[in-house]
Amino acid sequence: MTRGRFVARRLVLLAASLLVASFVIFAALYLAPGTPLAALSGGQPLPPGSVQVLEQRYHLNESFLAQYWYWLVNALHGNLGISITLRENVSTLIASRIWTTAGLVLYATLIIVVLGIGLGIVSGLRSGPLDTSVLVVTAVSAAIPAFVAAIALIMVFAVKLGWFPALGNGTSFLSNVRHFTLPAIALAVASLAIVARVTRAAVRAEGDREHVQTAVSRGIPARYVIQRHILRNAAIPITTITGITTASLIAVAAVVEVAFSLNGLGAYLVQAAESKDIAVVQGISLLLVTAFVVVNLLTDLICAALDPRLALRDSPR
Amino acid sequence: MAAAESSASRRGLARLRSTGPAGIASAAVIAVATFAALFGPLLAPYDPDLPNLSLSWAGPAGGHLLGYDFEGRDVLSRLAAGAQSSLLGPLVVVILSVTAGTLLAVTAAWRRGVSDTAISSGLNIVFAFPGILLAVLAAAIFGAGLPAAAIALSIAYLPYVARVLRGAALKERGQPYIAALEVQGAPATAICLRHVVPNIGPLIVAQATILFGYAMVDLAAISYLGLGVQPPTANWGVMISENQDGLLLGHPLPAVAAGICIVTVVIAVNVLGERLFEQAQAPRR
Predict the structure, then answer these.
(1) Residue A255 to residue B213, Cβ atoms within 8 A
(2) Strand, coil or helix: what is B70?
(3) Average pLDDT in the A126-155 region?
(4) Are B83 and B40 in contact (CB under 8 A)?
(5) Which residue is closest to B239 within chain A, CA to CA?
(6) CA–CA min distance A33, chain B (Å)
(7) Do A145 and B220 touch (CB under 8 A)?
């Protein structure tokens, strides 16, 4: 399969799984107990006139599939309906929160890439006390859930040392960096450990291979051996694990946002789920699923770019 | 420990020894946690649900080793009682998703062709939903609570379980002895149940162990968010969220103690799972 066809096939698969996912999200919440009319009116009885207006405006009298179609077409145009609790466009509400979540996830990804891959490479290249301590520390930190990391960080760095604010968003870019540092670390801790361990194992496995030992025995400088032979080959598993863990942060961000009272999409989703604000739950779920699937696709594409054999091997079943 | 050792089979014990000191320590932690999950409510020295607002945030004192929480309840008793919901939930998730995952994986590997494609594409759709997101969706539909969250997570983990087991089952399917059994006319279900599943058994156990760690973290997170176990029921995730104000008020002990419980059990489960995985992957015969 050529590279172009590989990318095209992946894009079609992406679109197909997003379509099915959107159907699942819509259908699940459509079947939820409680009528949309009661949700719109807040459970209060409505005069017949306004019932009719509402039914018409939200297509409540039409079949389930027709309603799904309206919802999907509107969603593709950026119209996700109206929040019943805040009486505002879901898209507007999402737009005001999306950068908190995106910033948090990107900041955490940066930490994971720099520290996780860095530690993994260093401890994979040479055994010794550093390697052992990386192994022990990552075994522990891989088991720390984001919200436990959050309370530990608040306790030490916000309350005891006062280096960072404990709660809330910032007002400018710089103050946001300060506000997001502890949340990003809390979000990154477990994934960082997993990425470091997988990187270490990959670097170790490549370093043990015969062509690397041949290169070393031929007297090729260590820097070249590491760059061209070890890291080039270890890049695939490292990219895969970084991509998978980064994608998982998109959902876990909700926990961190709640822990630090950040005004992000995840925290809002949880709040909407509690108050059964269906349009908001649908909209944010669709967005998060899309982001999750896209990050996974990008990971696959980067891997295929790093090693074109992967695209060739990927045959349609 | 003594009770656990005498009841363990000799082979299990030998396998445990081969996991090294870290493996034995993990097994000990898991044994204590299991004991607490079974008998926690009986072990709790005080009533875990009895509030006494005059004692809220009070520190450790006479018989109350870990002090009191935000409502003046004994923290140690709540930790002991909370072991049940904190560990039983993940257990249910693991049983459900490993059973269903094994079934799907073995079916896909055995029948191949259309069944395999159908199962794989179905799992690919599920793969688009991260566990926590599916649990939040379940809470929005069925209301907050442990059962909805546990079922949602079991479904969300299916693709991960099935993908690994399918590969192993496919390998097993290609073995000559399976072809021999088929030629002898052994029914497919019998071959799967008596040969394929037992032979990928170590991998199933390793997967289940690792999954337990994930399920515990995710369920605790969902309870922390207020969408899982509902207060006043004692639960480690709930304890962190209800006592989080204590961090800013200078009484971090209740929240931190619950956090340590979660992390300790998850480390133990992960270490054990990793060892089991290495053993399962090691060449057989």
Answers:
(1) no
(2) coil
(3) 90
(4) yes
(5) A148
(6) 7
(7) yes
What average pLDDT score do residues B20-27 get? 84
- Indicate whether B6 pLDDT > 80: no
Alpha carbon distances (Å) from A241 to A194, B145, B167: 8, 32, 19
Out of B220, B227, B237, whose CB is closest to A273?
A: B227
For residue A231, the distance in angstroms to the closest alpha carbon of chain B comes to 24
State both tokens at A32.
Answer: 């939820």
**Which pTM was predicted?**
0.88
Q: In chain B, what residues touch A250 (CB-CB under 8 Å)?
A: 130
Distance of residue A289 Cα from the nearest chain B Cα, in angstroms: 6
Helix/strand/coil for B105? helix
- Residue A130 and residue A119: Cα distance in Å, rounded? 9
Q: At what angle do helices A98-111 and A265-274 cross, to 10 degrees?
A: 130
For chain B, positions 105-124, list CB contacts with chain A under 8 A: 116-117, 120, 124
Interchain CB distance below 8 Å, B128 and A144: no
DSSP chain A: --HHHHHHHHHHHHHHHHHHHHHHHHHHHHSSSS-HHHHHHTT----HHHHHHHHHHTTTTS-HHHHHHHHHHHHHTT---B-TTT-SBHHHHHHTTHHHHHHHHHHHHHHIIIIIIHHHHHHHH--SHHHHHHHHHHHHHTT--HHHHHHHHIIIIIIIS--S-SSS--SSHHHHHHHHHHHHHHHHHHHHHHHHHHHHHHHHHHHTSHHHHHHHHTT--HHHIIIIIIIHHHHHHHHHHHHHHHHHHHHHHHHHHHHTT---HHHHHHHHHHTT-HHHHHHHHHHHHHHHHHHHHHHHHHHHHH-THHHHH----
Sort out which chain A residues have CB atoms less than 8 A from B273's CB and list them: none
As a whole number of angstroms, the distance between CA A298 and CA A14 comes to 11
B263 vs A contacts (CB less than 8 Å)? 140, 143-145, 148
Dist. CA A302–CA A243, nearest whole Å = 10
Do the beta carbons of residue A171 and residue A91 sit within 8 Å? no
Residue A1 has pLDDT above 70, yes or no: no
Cα distances (Å, whole numbers) of residue B20 to B26, B136, B259, B267? 10, 39, 26, 15
List, for residues A200-217, the tens digit of each pLDDT value.
999 998 888 888 888 888
Question: pLDDT per residue over A16-50, tens digit each?
Answer: 989 999 999 998 888 877 666 666 666 677 777 77
CB contact under 8 A, A278 and B136: no
The single residue listed with the structure tokens 């930490």 is A111
Radius of gyration of chain A, Cα coordinates, nearest whole angstrom: 24
Pairwise CA distance, residues B41 & A86, whole Å: 42
Q: What distance in Å separates the CA atoms of residue B285 and residue B278, rounded to the nearest whole number?
A: 15
pLDDT range class, residue A295, cuts 50, 70, 90: very high
Q: State the complex-level ipTM.
A: 0.87
Peptide bond into B232 cis (omega under 30): yes
What does the pLDDT read at residue B104? 95
CB atoms within 10 A of CB B280: 17
Distance between CA atoms of residues A106 and A253, nearest Å? 11
Residues A147, B117: C-beta atoms closer than 8 Å: no
- For residues B244 and A154, what is the distance between their CA atoms, to the nearest angstrom? 10
Using left for φ > 0, alpha for ψ between -120 and 50, and beta otherwise, residue A168 falls in: left
